[in-house]
Design the sequence.
């Protein structure tokens, strides 16, 4: 499985990191989900300067676990830790998404979509009147 198929399956956003590699950003410190290797790569999770979590929670993801030292954050002085897990089985993908605190895309109902389109039409009409 590749990253794009994984993101579509779980309704996640893909972004390019500083190096131009596709990742799924999370909200636990500087966290990201990515696939290591080629098309059939393995799911990996990396968290930099993330809040502490119990070791057993990370181990529940499966795969090879690396935990960095616990240190104070430079700005907030809270205790943070770096974590990297490689080779996460796809059965544990939902738990990995939860641990990285990845934001899932919302699904709008047809009624909500029509209401938003109507509101946007009103706003566009008001802008045209203001410009003219």
Sequence:
């Amino acid at each position: 499985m590749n990253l794009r198929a994984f993101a579509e399956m779980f309704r996640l956003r893909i972004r390019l990191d500083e190096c131009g590699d596709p990742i799924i950003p999370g909200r636990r410190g500087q966290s990201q989900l990515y696939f290591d290797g080629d098309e059939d790569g393995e799911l990996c999770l990396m968290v930099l300067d993330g809040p502490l979590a119990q070791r057993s929670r990370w181990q529940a993801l499966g795969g090879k676990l690396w935990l960095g030292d616990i240190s104070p954050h430079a700005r907030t002085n809270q205790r943070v830790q770096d974590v990297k897990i490689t080779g996460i089985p796809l059965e544990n993908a939902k738990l990995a998404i939860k641990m990285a605190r990845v934001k899932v895309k919302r699904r709008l109902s047809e009624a909500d979509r029509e209401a938003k389109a109507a509101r946007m039409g009103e706003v566009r009409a008001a802008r045209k009147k203001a410009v003219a």
In short: Residues 3-105 form one domain. The mean pLDDT is 91. The longest helix spans residues 110-131.
